[in-house]
Amino acid sequence: MQKQTFKIVRRRLDDKEIAFLIKEIKQTPNITGFTVSEWDSFDGIFIAEIDNKLAGIIALKNTAGNWVSIEAFYVLSKYRNFGIGNKLFDAALKAAMKKKRNLYVITYNEAVVSIMRKNNLQVFDAFFKLPFFVMLANITHALNCYIVYEFIRKKIAFPADRKLTFGIKFFVE
Predict the structure, then answer these.
(1) How many domains is the chain partitioned into structurally?
(2) For the whole prediction, is pTM greater than 0.70?
(3) Can you tell me the distance from the alpha carbon of 79 to that of 34, in angstroms, rounded to the nearest whole number?
């Protein structure tokens, strides 16, 4: 495997990148898709670029209380196993710490769970172990019609037995 040189930048996505990510994520079992307006509403977007092209992304959203969630975390398949996911996660952790916000992640992806453990997040598999404000934000998020549609569509398209895993990291009390 050839080593890829990449950089992590914080910037908004352009319309072409959003359209590309929507299409790409629809074909991926371990991440629920987002609408154009959701991509535009994220509070912090870190992008891994190779030759000024998108190779991966992590998107943050401020939620209730002093929490921030990792909403989208995706590395294009041809760029996996080069450390891009680790660097994107590092950027998200640093942003949460700098803003004095606690961080949480909800994922089906075992690679993301591995990164959470490596970064000493508290990892568990029960929704009701989440802090109250995190549960509340996620119940509200789950009422989004597009999220419901994508969840059902992916259950049918990718019928694997997937386990939802939760991770939290406290930076403030």
Answers:
(1) 1
(2) yes
(3) 21
